[in-house]
Amino acid sequence: MQNLTLSSEALPKHIAVIMDGNGRWAKEKGKPRVFGHKNGVKAVRRTISTATQLGIQAITLFAFSSENWRRPQDEVGVLMELFFSVLTTEVKKLHKNNLRLRVIGDLSRFSKRLQDKIASAESLTENNTGMVVNIAANYGGKWDITNAVRQLAEDISGGILSSSDITEQSIAQYLTMSDLPDVDLLIRTSGECRISNFMLWQLAYAELYFTPTYWPDFNEDSLVDAITWYVNRERRFGCTGEQIKALLDK
């Protein structure tokens, strides 16, 4: 832990996490799926705490995808209530630790009660200057890009921009989290090896770390292992190691 902290420049600035395996974890213990989801909240606390101690700038947690509405209605209802409860109890802790909470995704499908709770939580922490904690809820990478393109088209139609102004940089400005660094490290738990429509644009150069650990068992050591793996990777961003070394010689 000490070495990671001392070499902070080598650490990822933005970590994204697909928190997978709650249901399977609970099933192996002979418990209902909701038991796994509730214990997953403890893993969220541990992950945020460890990332904060390491000085990570932003962490984005995939809590509920746009595809998750297909789950059984009872389970979706439990997840919504759990989301509401966690926002109520955890936001005060985040605020006390100077962390900023943001919920990203299409919030229009949530109940007004939950939308109001989200707005209240974001408002409480919006002026905090510590790590940004993004909760992706009813989020999909394709939705994010489609929404950005729609807004871009509206600005072109309104004469604010012209088609010649469209660049990768201009599109990126319309995406969620446009004010944050792109993701450096993606972590997915439970052994699944796919990104499941998560932050498709922002993951373009991310290192992808897959672990068999179920999310409720993910702890401080698990995050340190993932970051250690990241630091030991040769970060190329499309160029060669020789080119990077040449820059160091200047």
Instruction: Give the name of the CATH superfamily.
Output: Decaprenyl diphosphate synthase-like
Number-wise, the strands total 6
What's the helix count? 9
Element string (H = helix, E = strand): HEHHEHEHEHHEEHH
Shape: globular
Strand content: 5-15%
Question: Per CATH, which architecture?
Answer: 3-Layer(aba) Sandwich
- What's the N-to-C terminus distance? 32 Å
Report strand order across the widest sheet: 3-4-2-1-5-6
Query: Average pLDDT across residues?
Result: 89
Largest sheet: 6 strands, parallel
Low-pLDDT regions: 1-7
- The structural domain count equals 1
Helical residue percent?
40-55%
Describe the protein.
Helix content is 45%, strand content 14%. It has 250 residues and is α/β, with parallel strands linked by helices. The chain has a single domain, classed as Undecaprenyl pyrophosphate synthetase, CATH 3.40.1180.10. Strands 3-4-2-1-5-6 form a six-stranded parallel β-sheet, with helices on both faces. It is globular.
List the defining traits of the structure above.
250 residues, alpha/beta, Undecaprenyl pyrophosphate synthetase, 6-stranded parallel sheet, 14% strand, disordered N terminus
